[in-house]
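2024-03-11 09:14:02 DEBUG pipeline.ingest accepted 1 chain
2024-03-11 09:14:02 DEBUG pipeline.ingest length=281
2024-03-11 09:14:03 DEBUG pipeline.predict start
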Amino acid sequence: MKKLAVLLLAAALLLPAAALPEGNAAEVIPAAEETVAKLPDATLMTFFDGTMFVGDSQVAKFRNFVKKKWKEDPEYFRNIDFRAENSYKFRFAAYKTIPSGELKYAHITDGGKKVTLYALARKKKPKRIFILAGINDALTTDRKEENGVDRAMRYVRGATELIREASPETAVYFITQMPVTKSYTQGSNRFKAVTERWNAINEAIAAESGELGITLVDLASGLKDEDGALPSEYCADGLCHLNDAGYEIFARELLDFAQAEYEASRWIPGADADDTTGEEP
């Protein structure tokens, strides 16, 4: 009798749920969705170890903001190699050598000497290069043979190609152009014209990012109001430069980007532990 009971129980377990008596169908419990942990900010900052930030006054002011933060936290974005000069342009990043006639302009430096991004990438071999430039490119009046967006993209392609040649393992990132206030004006440029130009440049970079093997990092969206303008509470000069409150958001967007890279399995924390290229406190 016991053998029969065991056989009947075994047979019941082998039956599909629909074949079991009503009210006794086996409950199917769905597997729990896998959740990705939110990494601490200190861990997210290590994404930028071995990273070079290249750009104009926006990057220079971010460097100053980071240095001020070191008083509170000596490890705050500790290992970024900042290379920034006021009025740095996309076209400078696309030079293999600096033309003699352009040595008077703002170029990034190494050891007090003006150098090209190509030369610096070849020497330093950074793990990543983030580029934020183009404010002055967007302000330039269109030439008859080439509009400002096409010209900016020619420089983006050129810079990317040269970085690949100089340091094939370096990942290339372009940061979206920062917004300006509604009262912005410089020469004949006004808020609407500049905003439209910068949006077009951002869209053009995004459209070619796959083909070029680069990543467009959107840090601007978190700094725009409903009209696409930079709110006055985030602006230092009433025009386009961020204040500390603005750079708090800028930094937060960078950390959120690192979290997204982690969640997409494109970055493993700790993999860059030996990359320490930042400045000394």
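2024-03-11 09:14:41 DEBUG pipeline.report Residues 1-26 have pLDDT under 50 and may be disordered.
2024-03-11 09:14:41 DEBUG pipeline.predict end
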